[in-house]
């Protein structure tokens, strides 16, 4: 394949991470607003992965840390999918299946591995409604956007069987 036809990782990963990060944080902020919490508190809760409960005492500084952390995590998930899709083109070819499944995987890893290992040191208590909303957000605001953006950056010949 010529260099011009090769998919470029950086724009695909950055675009996918930015879109998923934006959609996810928007959904979380709307959900928080409906519960009487501010978007700043949402970002501080992300920063609590680094700072623990002290995050809520640091105002805008911890919100900024949460913002950077959130988009870094979204971009990391995009990079992981991009790498997997280079080895398994069917992930891109079957985007409507792999996207929701990837969103479910991201949800499971974040809530069952990353958060308990962070400075929070525990699983976050969730009601069945919280779990359902979280799963839907991760399917439609994380998994599908990442996969669709990676797919848009993948030349058609890269998605065919070799």
How would you describe what is shown here?
- With 162 residues, this protein is mainly alpha-helical.
- α3 packs across α6.
- 74% of the residues lie in helices and 0% in strands.
- It has one domain (9-157).
- The chain has six helices and no strands.
- The model has no long low-confidence stretch (mean pLDDT 92).
- It has helices at 9-34, 39-51, 59-87, 90-93, 95-117, 128-152.
Mean pLDDT: 92
Approximate strand percentage: under 5%
Can you tell me the overall shape? Answer: globular
Runs in which pLDDT lies below 50 for 5 or more consecutive residues are none
Number of domains: 1
Main sheet: strands, sense, barrel:
none
Order of helices and strands: HHHHHH
Tally the beta strands: 0
Q: Structural class, judged by helices and strands?
A: mainly alpha
Helix share bin? over 70%
| Rg, nearest Å | 17 Å
- Termini distance? 13 Å
Number of helices: 6
């Amino acid at each position: 394949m010529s260099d011009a036809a090769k998919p470029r990782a950086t724009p695909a990963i950055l675009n996918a991470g930015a879109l998923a990060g934006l959609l996810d944080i928007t959904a979380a902020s709307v959900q928080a607003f409906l519960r009487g919490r501010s978007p700043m508190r949402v970002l501080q809760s992300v920063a609590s992965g680094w700072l623990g409960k002290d995050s809520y005492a640091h105002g805008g500084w911890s919100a900024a840390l949460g913002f950077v952390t959130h988009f870094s995590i979204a971009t990391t998930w995009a990079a992981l999918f991009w790498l997997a899709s280079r080895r398994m083109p069917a992930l891109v070819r079957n985007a409507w299946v792999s996207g929701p499944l990837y969103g479910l995987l991201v949800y499971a890893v974040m809530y069952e591995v990353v958060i308990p290992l962070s400075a929070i040191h525990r699983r976050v208590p969730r009601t069945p409604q919280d779990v359902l909303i979280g799963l839907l957000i991760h399917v439609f605001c994380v998994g599908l956007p990442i996969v669709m953006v990676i797919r848009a950056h993948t030349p058609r010949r890269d998605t065919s069987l070799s």
